[in-house]
Amino acid sequence: MKVVTYEYHGAVGVGVLSKDGSCVSPFALSSETSALGLLAIVEADAAEVPLKTVEESIPLCEVKVLAPIPRPRRNIICVGKNYFAHVEEIADQGFDTTGGRGEAPEFPIVFSKLPDCVIGNEDDIIHNTAVTSQLDYEAELAVIVGMPGRGVKKSDAMNHVWGYTLINDVSARDVQARHKQWLLGKSQDTFCPMGPIAVSRDLIDLSNTEIKCWVNGELRQTGNTASMIFDIPTLIETISAGISLYPGDIIATGTPAGVGAGLDPPRFLRHNDLVEIQLSEIGTLRNKVNAIS
Prior knowledge:
CATH class of the largest domain: Alpha Beta
Number of helices: 6
Mean pLDDT: 95
Number of domains: 2
Oligomer: single chain
Shape: globular
Distance between the termini: 42 Å
């Protein structure tokens, strides 16, 4: 199933995308529940509440596509340094703020982004030039938790996954370095583009799914989920060991090599740059940079 959260005639709706991607069939929900986006669907699934779509569909071209979960209830859980080539590139260019020397981490590195920084497809990434001069992109597959759990074992972890979406883990590298932690550098307003849609877990083959990122049409990142240092079951087991997971929680699984900070010389985002992140079943997440001072 492919799910779209959208705005239509001033109201937020959520529905199933047609097989040809041309239209969306809205779920029969109240306006208050629809405003939750995909979160309403995930929570209903977890509670085993059946949902139906209405008979009349809406052409996708007539709606504004929003982030699948426009306002997550909790921080987005993120994983750093989860592709070895990315670990090497940031160490080589001196941007590893964890003190590493290019070695793969022994345990997953976990941080978070604030819910308020989420934006949708085609929304602008705001570059506050008074705060950062090193604005960077990170293409990531994000896990959407479907079932609650604490102390989840790897063997059962995938049963707690509803599905997936794409995230751009936008980062201010100089802010990260200055504060010796990642929250401020990764949680500024608009620093979490998400979407364009969400897909159920059966549509993604984690053993061989490619994710790509272009900046102004130039291919910068190409990675495969098979190359993660810590796979999704390991991440879920690690995070849930002492933190309860809930339906609608989002876990960003790390970025492959090719970020701006990893290039030689580094190449950071500037005004009007277009970042496009693509995964075949999810589509392309597009966002332009809008510089302010």
